[in-house]
Design goal:
With 509 residues, the chain is of the alpha+beta class. Helices cover 51% and strands 9% of the residues. The protein has 26 helices and ten strands. It has a five-stranded mixed β-sheet, sandwiched between helices. Strand 2 and strand 3 form a beta hairpin. The longest helix has 22 residues.
Amino acid sequence: MTSSKILDLDWEAAQNFLLTKECYCDFDLPQYFNFEAILKKLAESEDFQELTNFEGAKNYLKVNYILYTNKDQNYAWRPLQLIHPVLYVALVQKITKEENWQEIQQKFPKASSEKIECVSLPIVVKGNKYSRGQQINNWVKEVQQKSLELALDFEYLHHTDISECYGSIYTHTIAWALHGKPECKNKLKKSDNKSEKWLGDEIDNLLRCMSHGQTNSIPQGSVLMDFIAEMVLGYADKELEGKLKDKGFEYKILRYRDDYRIFTNSKKDGAEILKILTEVLIDLGLKINPAKTKSSSRIIIDSIKPDKLFWIVNNKLNLEKYRQKKLLIIHDFAEKFPNSGTLTNLLSKFFKKEKKTKSQIKNPKILISILADIALKNFRAIPKIFALISFYLSYLESDEEKIEMCKKIKNKFRNLPNVGHLEIWLQRLTIKLDRDQEQTELLCKMAKLGDGNKKGKFKKSEIWNCDWNLSNKIKLIINKTPVIDEAKIEEISSIFSKEEVDVFAEYYS
């Protein structure tokens, strides 16, 4: 599959790319959620084009819709946001306006030498689409594989990342990235320049409209925000390069978003580079994560993620004959490496094998119980786990028994906060059996009732706060345009398809 980077597109292609459903929502939701139509209708609306002042949004909380997912099975909850469609389209159109896009292409910050290499810009595949599978494949090629190759040239690998990166980005630094920090500071000092809006200022302002006027964070969960984060992180690369220029260090840095791999031939040089990187990030309001900062002389071993390396060395799955034992092996791995990429990959592969099985499954309830226990501490893997559960549910005798089993799964999570994302996938399990089940998560209510402007239907203004200065026509577009694809609900089976849970399915098809 041919691919390119977002900065290679012209302004029109970039706009169309960022208005796709894949770019708007880059986290797992069932296939029947589709926000693209609402984005396109707003973009084409004359009323929307007349809307030039978005300041009113700053006066309201919960303008964007937030879902929480768990990072570490304890209290590290990551907020994923569905950005208000009006503000999302406004920001896309602002960035991709022809002269603005050309300015971004010219000024997009990056290190000028090959010593610091960013390999995380959003990837565009055939049909002007975004593919998570291709993005992951790019990480494997440009980070993992290149790290292994660099073991020939360097003796030490120093690994670190930024603590709570998206939640810590200071929105004013976007203007610094595009126009330079001294220039921005100087502009503030001159009263005759304060009213002049630079592109970086306009991006900053729209981001603050999404978060009650706050300057400390950008929403997480879309390719658009990944791209904006790259502006700030690219500026950090450029600043770091400048500070290292006359140090005489022999080094190579690979950066994938907020993750840094620093290669040196001296442990002392690596420590000094980490110190200087810390200073650069502090100046931007960011800081490295001490828990994930380490140095090693075992470049080959430490180039592979610990969960992946453990599985390569200890894989016993193919040796086991019985599926219950196989699931228990996966359960044990999940205890050792919760929420890991290898775990989600294992579950995805196991699901594909199970769907091909022709043997009778005699103990589906036991298998479901094991999977539910894995889900309890591995929210990242929920779609894959529930895909397997959907398969084992098909071996229960009646719909009533299946629904009762799903209620037991839901009850297992009763003491955990922020389980909206889990509820969405639990609803996917039962939507073909009983669509009328009581729901608390708003996105589930929308899927339960359908949407549109008919009496009794769910209003999407319950998802995104629309109380600010939006015309009735724009509110009507938001409430009338379906984001629940009823045809897709009709089409799907009670048993998940691999396309629903495998990010590589579309990439390899």
